Amino acid sequence: GEQVEQRPPHLSVPEGDSAVIICTYTDSATAYFYWYKQEPGAGLQLLMSVFSNVDRKEEQGLTVLLNKKDKQLSLNLTAAHPGDSAVYFCAVRRSSNTNKVVFGTGTRLQVLP
Amino acid sequence: EAAVTQSPRNKVTVTGGNVTLSCRQTNSHNYMYWYRQDTGHGLRLIHYSYGAGNLQIGDVPDGYKATRTTQEDFFLLLELASPSQTSLYFCASSERGRGNTLYFGEGSRLIVV
Question: Which residues of chain B have a CB within 8 Å of the CB of A32?
């Protein structure tokens, strides 16, 4: 079945710097891609979702890049601030005929003031 | 605003004990899921359901039963709890056709001693 590797597991950046998280998936039929954020003591909340026909999507200081050739998905937080400190998860779904979502292993991001 | 409520939020039980985790969603979503979150593994799907009376097996189902009694309620049952089931459990719901965004509860932390 689908496997998703996520790196790095931990990331510390100074405030104002960018932070990049990368996921690699295995199934070339994967069609839907998600980034979730988990704040301490809370469930996951969706940051962004992209369909496989999108290579790049930007929203509110976040950039998602999709490289289907290398089966790689990345999240770039530009000008990170302490409020961005959280655990980030990528997730993928194979196609429209399944609701099964597979998650990456998570990245704990710390933004240092 | 989507709402997924889990109970109990914290539970300690003994090995061999019987535990039921409850989840209620008020989103009118068809799909509900149970995940477990463990360091180094991210979120792993235990069971999911696309409606009352339906149950689908996830990726790590061993030792778990689940039951969807109504569209709103999804229960996870551990009939003979083991220490390996010590984890943080998340329930989520989604509506197919809207990008399958998962809406998560706040989690139930289970410790099996």
Answer: 99-100
B41-75 per-position pLDDT tens digit: 889 999 999 999 999 999 999 999 999 999 999 99
Closest alpha carbon to A85 in A5, A9, A3, A12:
A12
Show the DSSP H helices in B7-57 as ranges: none
Q: Which two tokens stand for residue B86?
A: 């010590």
List chain A residues with CB under 8 Å of B43. 44, 89, 91, 103
3-state secondary structure string, B46-79?
EEEECCCCCCEECCCCCCCEEEECCCCEEEEEEC
Touching check for B44 and chain A: CB below 8 Å? yes
Nearest-angstrom CA–CA distance, A22 and A16: 20
Q: Are A84 and A109 in contact (CB under 8 A)?
A: yes
